[in-house]
Amino acid sequence: MAQPATSSAAATGFARYVGLAPGLALCFAVAAIAIWVRDVSGIKILNPVVVALVIGIAIRAAMGLPAALRPGTAYVVRPVLRAAIVILGLQVTLTQLLSIGPFALGLAVAAVGLTMVFTIWLGARLGVDGPMAMLLGTGTGICGASAIVAANQVAGGKQEDVAYALAVITLCGTISVVVYPYLAPFLGLNANAYGIWAGASVHEVVQAVAAAAAFPDPAAVEVGTITKLARVVLLGPAVLALGMWVRRGDPSGVKAPVPWFAFGFLALVVIGSTGLVPAIAVRISRFAVPIMLSASVAALGLGTDLRALRDKGVAPLALGLLATLFIAVLGLIGAKLI
Fold it and tell me: Is residue 8 part of a domain?
């Protein structure tokens, strides 16, 4: 009697994975195209996550989201995304973080914490929905697109919220890359201070590195990169704190899920810091994470209606710009003091 039940369960499991295949294939195909576009264009600060979002939204606008694709896209948005965030932990080590000294580390913590609190507070006064403000605050404070899609696992924003937040953060980070090098001479920053400023306040990792690399002294790149990584490693604690805040502040009694993937992220940071992780595993993570994140955001794009994006108005854009200004000033003050 047990054998038929086992066979039936196996057949059901196989059918489920077959049902996931079309959506999975489309999302990863979009991710591959997005990375190809970045590589062919030669624009290193062109985030494939954003390219994948644009392609996904375009496909949705052209053909909708057929029922056959929905199981696979839903799977990419959750398990694949969470796995990508966990694996991201291999790319940061505690040794790297400690090399910039306690004051720069303190600035990174302050930049993340104060920016998130400020953005959520200001968002409430500008009439921006709580989830959208959380996404903008996390993306501005930590590491752009990766932080936004990770934070939404507890913030509970709609797909349109994520898409809008990604667009705003990309715009603001790009402005920073262009403006920072021109401001440096007027602000009297040396290589160390400029690197700390860029690393403590520019959104995406690639954007922060690009901004730091524009300084004449190459020492700014190393300092900027490590300072930025200090903010990246705070992704796990920040998402955990955000999850606790959401659960505590929800009057409906519906609790946000515990972001276990954040614990996995922190665990891999610690494991990677021991020196026991083979170098090839780190290289594979640098290859796999962008593809997995891009596929996840492609799935979000496929579920995003352009009309819903237009309905968001300009308030979230204003909030993103003001949050960017806040962290830029905070980072500059900290860099000057250090």
Answer: no
Tokens 């190459």, residue located: 218
Q: Give the model's pLDDT for residue 253.
A: 47
Tokens of 204: 């995406």
Question: 312 lies in which domain range?
Answer: 16-337
Q: What is the pLDDT of residues 213-227, one digit of tens each?
A: 888 888 888 899 889
Residue 146 to residues 161, 218, 222, Cα–Cα distance (Å): 14, 27, 22
Q: How far apart are CA 128 and CA 67, in angstroms?
A: 32
The predicted pLDDT at position 15 comes to 58
* Domain count along the chain: 1
Whether 134 is in a domain gets the answer yes
Residue 248, phi-psi category: left (phi > 0), alpha (psi -120 to 50), beta (remainder):
alpha
Chain-centre distance of CA 161, in angstroms?
14
Q: Identify whether 53 is part of a domain.
A: yes
Question: 301 with 149: CB under 8 angstroms?
Answer: no
Burial zone of 230 (CB within 10 Å; 0-12 exposed, 13-18 middle, 19+ buried)? buried
Long-range CB pairs of 273-277 (<8 Å, 24+ gap) are 273/93, 273/94, 273/95, 277/90
Q: At which residue do the structure tokens 């294939």 appear?
A: 25
Token duo for residue 259: 């972001």
CA–CA distances in Å: residue 122 to residues 10, 139, 245, 316: 52, 15, 17, 10
Give residue for tokens 């610690």: 270
CB atoms within 10 A of CB 20: 18
Q: Is residue 4 in some structural domain?
A: no
pTM over 0.70: yes
Cα-based distances in Å from 48 to 101, 150, 166, 201, 266:
32, 16, 12, 21, 25
Contact 20, 71 (CB under 8 A): yes
